[in-house]
Design goal:
The protein is of the alpha+beta class. Helices cover 27% and strands 34% of the residues. It has a single domain, classed as hypothetical protein PF0899 fold, CATH 3.30.2320.80. The strands form two sheets. The chain has a three-stranded mixed β-sheet with strand order 2-1-6. It has a three-stranded antiparallel β-sheet with strand order 4-3-5, with no helix packed on it.
Length: 113
């Protein structure tokens, strides 16, 4: 389960940013996770309690915003929503595409106290 190592990295980053801001605890962490990121939000939520134990994030709430995947067809220029990275363009059936969003994994907001 690589989500535990991801959760621990997020916690480390939050601790660093809290220190820079002069805070003593974190009450919430808001993440953006793209559907094509390879991260399973439920597994990350499950790992969160383990990752925050005995840290200044111990009482923090995790908020996950899932970002849908979008791409632009390289053949016809159509922009469309992807179910997975192998989905063809619904307009022309082409497989060449530029992924515009959906691969994100980032901390969107951190509430420091």
């Amino acid at each position: 389960m690589h989500e535990l190592s991801i959760a621990m990295s997020i916690v480390e980053t939050c601790i660093e940013e809290t220190g820079k801001a002069g805070g003593s605890s974190v009450s919430s962490v808001e993440l953006e996770i793209g559907k094509l990121s390879g991260v399973v939000p439920e597994a990350l939520e499950f790992s969160w309690d383990v990752a925050i134990k005995d840290t200044l994030l111990e009482k923090s709430r995790l908020v996950i915003n899932v970002i849908e995947a979008k791409a632009r067809c390289l053949d016809c220029g159509n922009t469309f929503v992807l179910d997975d990275s192998y989905s063809p363009c619904p307009s022309c059936g082409g497989f060449g595409k530029e992924i515009l969003q959906g691969q994100e994994l980032k901390i969107r907001a951190l509430t420091i106290e």
